[in-house]
Each structure stands twice: as structure tokens, then as C-alpha cells.
Amino acid sequence: MKTPRKASGSIMRKYYQLILVIVCFVSIVTLLIYRHEYYRLRYVLEVLNFFGKPGLSEIEFCGPGFNATMLSEIVRNTSMGVRETPPLFQQIDDNFYSYSSFLRSYQKYEKLSPMRAHNIDTIVVGRAHIKPNFRCNIWLEDTDKPKVGRFSFEVVSEPINDYSLYVFQCYLNKDLGKPKGVSFYVNDYNINPIHAPIIKVIQVNTKRKLRESASIRFVNNIVPAICVIPNQVPLVSRDSFIEFLVFHHMMGVNHFTIYDSMISEDIIRRLNLLPSDITQWDIQFFPLNYPYVFAKSYSIVRNAIELDCLFRHFRLDKEETNKASHAMVLSWDEFLVPRVHSNIKAVIDDYDPTRKLRTIVIKPLLFCLNQEIDSNTEIGYPDIMRKSHYYMTPQIMKSVYIRNLDSMSVFEDIYNLTSASKVAPLEIIAAQKYTECRDPKAYHPSGLGYNETQMQVFQHKFEGAMLRFGQSLVSDKIYRLYRSGQIWEKTHNEFVRDML
What we know:
Layout: H1 2-51, H2 68-76, E1 90-91, E2 96-103, E3 118-127, E4 134-140, E5 147-155, E6 163-172, E7 179-186, E8 199-203, E9 224-229, H3 238-250, E10 255-259, H4 265-271, H5 276-279, E11 282-286, H6 294-314, E12 326-331, E13 334-338, H7 344-351, E14 359-362, E15 364-368, H8 383-386, E16 389-391, E17 400-404, E18 421-424, E19 429-435, H9 452-455, E20 460-462, H10 470-475, H11 477-483
Parallel strand pairs: 2-8, 9-10, 9-12, 10-11, 14-18, 15-19
Antiparallel strand pairs: 1-2, 2-3, 3-6, 4-5, 4-7, 5-6, 7-8, 12-17, 13-19, 14-17, 16-20
């Protein structure tokens, strides 16, 4: 009788152990599920803390209390920033400064020309009255010693204030490897060339691939790009910064390359707070250093930037997605304003339907920020919408050029931009410049422009083309975010460069 009782007690203990194991297992699974749900909820709360509560309007989706961890992730994965080799002015000697170099003869070891197997073009700004006399070295991958190249040069601009724009060419007749850099030094055998600065080369395509349906033209085939440079007086307010990007984005431009060394990291971070589905733009920042006095060399530096802009966009085949078909250079205070059409793409499609023009010349109009505000405009509109008269003052005005990259089948076509050019009439489009109008011959320490009495002397004409886009601008999501203080806390007379 004792043996069965022992067996029964042993069975009960096994059942208790099994139940404990099951309870323990269920507890562990429940704990894991709870932990998983907890972290999901915590992640959702972080996102809500960053973007705002569901159902809020676009102007409320991000506030001053954003999460730093989320911000760092966005900045880390940003599409904006320096993604390519930046152009920088480097001194060759006292009279010449190199800017950027492009390798245009290297075809991935395929179809190399027996003559000038490697040809490197370097954009150079220098004195107009001095003839370049240099030697050059080409630095190859996987080698520490350079190969001596052959030097030549071309003058690609008329002299401006004793400055000219050059293209220094350094080439090899034999394929000795893939070039990675080039250096120029004075043609003097007493000078050691090893100390000359090395410029990293950027590979470009020697030919631009055409579309298979090149005979069929649609407005959607037009992909304009803008390269932005500082104003001649290198100050840009935050209002002007946002207004420029938003307005030209409304005009159909999604690609911006900004050449400005004073753009701070704070600007890049805050622009990245905007979701890509709202902006739908691609912005590249490049620093810009000045080799000479900025006011005297501004025009020639602008020419150098335009050439760099064309070189960089030409290196990308048209078959690739969303690569620029047209490129132009604008400063922060210049706006391309259509008269009849709704955007720049429609203007190009209508004015050049066959895409044969190499250059479309846009006439400039000067709108003085120190002129009276048009009382008929809306109070909430920005100044560019409330200045409705352009003036004829002694200030020097230069045209804006829209360069058609699709008309350039080979790289050498970039050096012949005036082969097929045409001036667009003001009835179609104009380059409207918004700046303080002042006497260029008179110096004032505070930089004040003409007063109201002096402004009345100059002839002026009404132009209300910009007013057409006033409501669209102030209703734009990005502009509303900025005006509401969600991107920057709004203060008056605050300059972008004050953020450095």
C-alpha cells in the first residue's frame, strides 16, 4: 500500500513542475512581448515629439523641442551636404589660382585616343596681362611618383578688371594608369615641383548620350538646375534664402548647387527637418573662397563657377534619372520670373521647342529694395512681391544665361556657348534683381542706398509679373513653416551669416 502512495506523490510533483515550467515560459514570452511593445510605443512617442501630433497642419509638424537623436539620424542620412569633390581656389603662383580639375579623356580604359590619352582640364582665374608659363604633373592611382604631363592653356573669357578665366590643360600621350590628381608649377627647373598643390580630378564624360526618342520633345524632358552664388554684396537674409529656394522650386527647379562658404551647418540641419516628400529638391553645398578682393573679382569668379557648374552637370549622362538638361547661375537676389507661363520649364519648351539653342539670354531688371512699397499689394507678402517698379540706375546689370546641356554632344561644346544663342524678350521672362540701389562711385560706411528723393530722379516702370505668384508663395508648405518660426525663430534683420 505504501508504494502506490509514493508513486502518486511523485506524479503530483511532476505535474507541479510542469505547471511551473509553463508559467515561467508564459511569463518570459509575456515579458518579451511587453518589452517589444514598450519600445514600439517609446519610438512612436519620440516620433510624435519630433514631428508633432497626428492631424496637425504642416506648419506645426516640427517645433523647437525636437529630439536630438532623431535629428542626428536625419542629418546622417541627409541628401544635402558636400557629396562631391568641392572646388577650391588654390594658389599656383602670385598671379594664378586653380579652382577645379576634370578628367575628360579617360574612358575606363576603353577607346582611348592614341593622342592625349588623358586630358585634364583645370579652371583657373589669373591676371589678364600675364601669359601662363607652367609645367604640370599628373598623379596616378597606386603610385607615389607623378608623371610629367604636357601643358597648354586656353583663355575662355574676356578680361574683367585685369582678370581672365583660363582652362589649363595637362595631358599624357600614353595610357599609364588612371589619373587621380594634377599639379602645376612654374616653368623653372630650380623649383622643386613636389611642393606644388595637388588638385583632385573629377571624371567626366567626353560625350553626352542622347535619348533614343530625341526627335520627340516634351516639357517633362526639361530638367533645369540652378547654381547659386553669393550676392555682389555678400550678405543674404534668412528671408531671402528661403524665398529664393521656394520660389524657384515653384518654377520647376529641383536641383540646386550652392557655392557659398558662409552657409552654416545649422542651415543644413534645419533644412533637413523638412521631409523629402514636402521639399522634393536636391541641394548640394560647396564652399567658396576668394583668391582676390571679392568686389573686384566678383564677375570673373562668377564665370569660374558657371564653368564648374557646366562641367559637373555634363559629367552625368542624360539617360540617368533626373539629370539636368539646362543649367544657369543665379545669385541670391536674382529671380527668374515668367510673364505668361507658370514655370521655367514651360518657358523653355515654348521658346525653344526643338532644343537647338545653346544659350537663352535673360535680360535683367533692377528692383530697388529701398523703393517705396506698392500699396496695392498684400501686407503679408514678402518684399520681392511688394516692389513693383524696376529702375534704370547707374548700377551695372548683367544678363542671366540658361545653358542647354542637351545641345552639347561633346565636352568641347562647353567652350562654345555662344554658337547658338538668343535673347528672350521681356514679354516672356526676365531676371529680376532685388537689391539696395546705391551710387557705385560713392562709399558710405553703413552701406545706405539712395533715399526717396534721389530715387525719384531715376526712370522707372511698373512690372507686376511677380505679383502673379504671391499667393502661391505664401501658401507654400515650406514657406509657411519658415514664417511660422518652425524652421528658425523669427527675428528681424537677422542674416544667415550671423549663425556661424
